[in-house]
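Fold this sequence, please.
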Amino acid sequence: MSEMTLQTLETTEQWDAALAASSERPLLVFKHSTRCSVSAGAHDELTTFLSDVKSPAFDAVLVNVVEDRPVSNRIEEQLEVKHASPQALLVEAGNVTWHTSHWHITYAALEEKLRQHCEM
């Protein structure tokens, strides 16, 4: 059992590959603004949660929305979920099955939703 890793997506090609892989394994997408204190808090909640996940049944990716705007825009267009940051989206087989943003991204919310969808 190893600690969950959070891959940073910097290109639309990386996003396309991650989206395609969601047909095999659920994908947790975290859209993060490096300029926002609310996003920093949500990022802390996410990384604490991921550090406690020992047998992940999902993959996790991070998109820095300021630095990698084309990736963030592609996600919004393809998933048809209005952009927010911070934002968490759970993608299964290319479709969003859950999403939330801002102060709703908490350890407890992530644990509850990922247990429901990913059989952790």
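Strands lie at 7-8, 27-32, 59-64, 87-92, 95-101. The chain has four helices and five strands.
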